[in-house]
Specification:
The chain is of the alpha/beta class. Helices cover about 50% and strands about 15% of the residues. It has one domain (about 1-195): TIM Barrel (Alpha-Beta Barrel), CATH 3.20.20.
Amino acid sequence: MRLFLDTANLEHIRHGVKLGIISGVTTNPSLVSREGKVDYRTLVQEICSVVPGPVSTEVLSLDAPGMIAEAREIAKWADNIAVKIPASLAGIEATSQLSKENINVNFTLCFSLNQAIMAAEAGATYISPFVGRLDDIGEDGMQLVTDIVEYLEYYQLPSQVIAASIRHSQHCMAAARAGAHIATVPYKILLQLIQHPLSDIGIKRFADDWEKVMGKQKITTTGT
């Protein structure tokens, strides 16, 4: 399972890419607005220049012609753009047309298998079930991820599942178990994925034991 960052914060994105574990980014108007008054196109293009893989950014129109026109323009911004199209009838129409034009579509705000089936049939490159939002209303968001993955595998369809609306590190593990191709996580969650109290205790114990015997001496390297 690949890891994407769900953010529009360039500092966080650069750090994730530097770690060597982030291969894509998902953004939306809400995430961009948190960065203050910025030029949307310039910000997205800068993100695209930093990230090695797909960068998903969302259209604002609600009708199919408007979505299609916006998506065509957004797709010109960088080679690694994926255009986020919302789950609606207009979104299905737009996805169908854009896929015929080889524009990568991230079908977003997916909350049911029926929506995912339509997105896959329309040719969506990615399908993004929103796990956390389903959990918020008492439904099993991760079960939806499992259902979509199984559907795509059974019918051998090429769409990939992006587990989105990740709220905590357990969601990330569950997405991996469910077979999600990608989990897109907030920066805070990304940092939590490496944390475990036993690791912290072990690291400190090794360092303390070394210092007892060797003092402040460091391991030295020799050139060849």
